[in-house]
Amino acid sequence: MVLVGIEAKMLTSAQERHLSCLDCLARATKRLRIFSSVFIVCSLIFSSAIYLNSGTLQFNQVQLVHTIYNRTTTQLVGTRRLVECAPVQRIVFLKTHKTAGTSIGTILQRYGYTRNLSFAIPAKDTPVFHCCRYFKRTDVYQYTEQEVQFEPEFGNQTWGFNMMTSHAVYSRPEMDAVVQDGLYVTSLRNPVDQFESAFVYFDMMKQAKITTNNNTNPLSVFFTNPENYRKRIRYGEKQVQNGQMYDLGFQSQYFSDPFYIRYKIRQLEREFDLVIIKEYFDESLILMKKLFCWEMDDILYIPKRIRDSGFRYNISENLRQNIREWNHADVLLYEHFNRTLWRKIEEYGAEFWQELDAFRRRIVDVTSLCEAGSQIIKDNVHHMNIIRLGNKTNFCRNLLRMDGEYTALIRKRMQVKEWKNTQRNTSISDLNSKQQTEKGNLNSTKSKLSTNNSPISDTMNGKRITRVRKKIFKKIVKKIKKPVTKAVRKP
Question: Could you read off the pLDDT of 1-11 as tens digits, one per residue?
Answer without folding.
Answer: 444 444 444 44
